[in-house]
Design a protein that fits this description.
alpha/beta, globular, Methyltransferase, Cobalt-precorrin-4 Transmethylase, Domain 2, about 30% helix, about 250 residues, homodimer, 10 strands, Cobalt-precorrin-4 Transmethylase, domain 1, five-stranded mixed β-sheet
Chain lengths: ~250, ~250
């Protein structure tokens, strides 16, 4: 029997780690992720202006006293729509500068762990660093429990059975497109519900799925909220909200 | 700073734990999952006849000497097609008997951890126990890193960017249906490729996605194999094989 700390392993100098930290509960970091958070010279993270940063908050119980941190702060979040050219150029510039600052640390021989909510390769900001740095430095990516797994676990919803198909859809899709996609799947997860809650609810209802749909906000975090979508009358939901529609495939 | 063992927590008497053990590498168990594997009175697992059981093999480095186990052995695997009534009745009887044997352990006050590859609520056999036992016993489900996250991590494929949609499709779908679904998504994961490899490859090619598609077998396990789908000419693949088609959404 090996101790958990031994299994978790160590970090190598000059290496970039993309560390999935899971949906919110610190106990849902993997052994490798938890080990790396402690082992790296610098813990890097993205955060919105004026906020702690969600990934940073998740790993707080694991951090060592005085461990170096690199806070990468978005110059803009949702004050400008993501489709706007100003948003895109400012964020692209920010990602470029962030990659440069991480590269400087790596050149000094530091091991750098960029923590990412959920899984780094599933809608993660980490990917914007990875595509700039993976050709120049050794990189290890550590997969994580996704936000959607955390949400369906807490909502007590087995999601996909037998040969069910699952569609993951952003709530930003046009209403008619959402209806069409929902009608052509067995199970569905609608992400980025936030401002799109009223539209998502209408689309789910038009697809005939309202009775099966569950709204989950901040799943596995301290202030999680889980309610039938049919009971959500508010025009908008929380930023970390998703709608889950479980499949009804083969039960044996 | 808290030790990993402390964070992992303990198990309660008479409780059923559905423990996601991730895609294959023992370091990809969560802290809670690893803690529970050690803490429960009985580690239960499904296995095919004559095999160790994949979940059981994953957790081997964590097991305590002499820890009690409950092996639940499928009476049939792929000798009979899953759609055949004989298969369905034999498996249903097996799940019923398995649930009864777990219930007997729980009635004795034992804590029972049923380990599940990937995430317990995502195509997991655990769900068939959950629906029989969750109303009668306290249950805790621990989400896990899915097999698909493990595969796209090892294949170095960031999967979903910006507002990409993701479709998870079983390779058992008819070829025309696969083509249609692949044409209406940005990113896709085709599971259960095994016997369906030739059909899946034809469907991906007809959908115009062959150049982006990657075949991954036993991702994160010792004998993993990752090749462009275009290079897979064999009529069938391994049981634990999937095809990944990454999205091409917004890169900033």
């Amino acid at each position: 029997m090996t101790s958990l700390d031994e299994l978790a392993g160590t970090a190598r100098a000059g290496t970039l780690y993309g560390i999935g930290v899971g949906p919110g509960d610190v106990r849902y970091l993997t052994l490798r992720a938890a080990g790396l958070v402690r082992a790296v010279d610098v813990v890097a993270f993205f955060a919105k202006r004026g906020q702690v940063g969600n990934a940073r908050r998740i790993v707080a119980p694991l951090m060592k006293d005085g461990q170096a941190e690199a806070r990468l702060e978005y110059p803009v979040t949702d004050e400008i729509p993501a489709e706007h050219p100003d948003y895109q150029s400012r964020i692209a510039g920010f990602y470029r500068a962030s990659a440069e600052s991480l590269a400087a640390l790596l050149h000094e021989g530091k091991s750098v762990g960029l923590i990412a909510e959920g899984d780094p390769f599933f809608y993660g900001s980490f990917m914007h660093m990875w595509r700039r740095l993976a050709s120049g430095f050794p990189v290890e990516v550590v997969p994580g429990v996704t936000g959607m797994s955390g949400c369906w676990t807490r909502a007590n919803l087995p999601m996909t059975w037998g040969n069910d198909t699952l569609s993951v859809l952003p709530g930003t899709l046009a209403e008619d497109m959402l209806v069409e996609r929902l009608q052509r799947t067995d199970a569905a997860v609608v992400m980025k519900v936030g401002k799109n809650l009223a539209k998502v609810r209408r689309a789910v209802e038009r697809a005939g799925l309202l009775s099966r749909a569950v709204y989950v906000e901040r799943g596995t975090m301290q202030d999680e909220r889980i309610v039938p979508l049919a009971d959500c009358d508010a025009p908008r939901g929380a930023y970390f909200a998703m709608v889950l529609i479980p499949g009804e495939g083969r039960r044996l």
